[in-house]
Amino acid sequence: MSFFELIGEKFFNPFCCRNREIYIACIDQLIERSKEISVLYETDARDTLILYLKNCEYTIETENIGEEVGSGKSPQENASAILRYFRMCGWITPQEIGRSGDNIASVSAYCRKLIDAIHKIFDRDANGAITNHIFSMYEILKSSFGKDSARAIRPYQNILVPLVENECDLKNDLLILKDSIREIMRAVLKMADANSFGQFLIKDELLNRFFNDYFFIKKSGMIPSYIADIDRMLRKLRRSELYDRMVEDCRKTENLEEIRVKEKIDRQFAELDSFINLEYEQEMDYIDRKINTYYNLYSTRMMMVVSNNTNLEHELNRLLIFMKNLDDEDREAILRHLSETHRLMNMGYIGKKSFERRKKANPNRKTAGLSVSSLSEEERQRLTDELLSAAPDRYSVENVQKHFERLMGDRKKIRVEESGIRTRDDAIMFAASIIYSGTEGFPYEVELGSGMVETEVAGIRKVTVKRREQ
After folding, report:
1. Rounded to an integer, what distance in angstroms lies between the CA atom of residue 87 and that of residue 10?
2. What's the CA gap between 114 and 384, in Å, rounded?
3. pLDDT tens string 357-412
4. By the 8 A CB rule, do 119 and 47 touch?
5. DSSP 3-state of 71
6. 0.70 exceeded by the pTM?
7. Measured between alpha carbons, how far is 248 from 364 in angstroms, rounded to an integer?
8. Is there a contact between 276 and 227 (Cβ–Cβ < 8 Å)?
């Protein structure tokens, strides 16, 4: 059966008509919607397209697809027409009534694979793709030799086929890397002023992506060791018992004779060995040479642009040869005139930090200041009482008085050296007694002596606390 008989002759028609962009967008919407629900019915598919068409940024042109679809019709009519067109082209499965009584509108398997392949080719991020393929090949080979490895059950399908696929993808990514250098070189040759060079360095994402991937491969230090391990494990795999099981697995899968199966597997092993040991190094050497050529081209082009397409080195050489044969007076006069025409300019590059936008402060953030408000006398007194009760003064007049009553007992006076000060609170109590001495309501007075007393806490001046006479 031929390719077009298998998928249908009109399968690629939506790519070649006037409304191709909106058809691709609509099938993307249906694929995303089918991921959210178990079965996509025609009602759900129509509602999805109606919602998209109402917000559609494309212009729908009138087109004959068995019936008219265009800007003159409502989104409901266009959605129904698009669904019928997709079913006619094979993008949606034929009519089948589901359990709910509505027709099933599932996206066909070939359409899903085609749209997914298109997105992988044109929308994927190529950064890191080369190293990902190398890591995948290493992990496949390493897991295949593990104890009770699941890959060893079907070694051809689970080991050799993924290795060959990663090797092919790695080849393609290296070709993309080489083509990127060509695109950069063509862009450099088109530049005619210094401003273009600045914009090329700052804005070109292709340049950043290319050098980011390339320098990771060259400078990480791990890629050569991974390549060597892959080569070693490939030789080990070919000599192991997995090879015979691989032949048997391929014979059952491909339904071929054993001789042809061995020829096919040996050819795939030879391709892997040739790429790992020869082609990969050749491709990387070619890229290295192209990088050096790019740097030389860039510097030469920059010099020509700055010098207005004049070879200043050649002209300066001619001037020096001419001045060499002149007399001292003439040479001095020429140098004096050259110094008057020369103007020294400071050239520099602007970094990204120079034009980086500053982050604005959040205007909606709550301030940490206290709000200003007036309090009544009763409210102020209540808050004061609450504050005093919540944080009582440990060294108030009452507390100091109680301390000395407990300390002195029946005595009329006590000296600091007799009190046995052992803690910080004991020392502060004596300091507080000096402050409160003579205060109304404090029944003690303090006499200051000469000299200091060394206690367990600190050095304290000699003082004597006496009871007041009533």
Report:
1. 10
2. 78
3. 766 666 666 555 555 566 778 888 887 777 666 555 677 878 888 888 888 878 88
4. no
5. coil
6. no
7. 71
8. yes
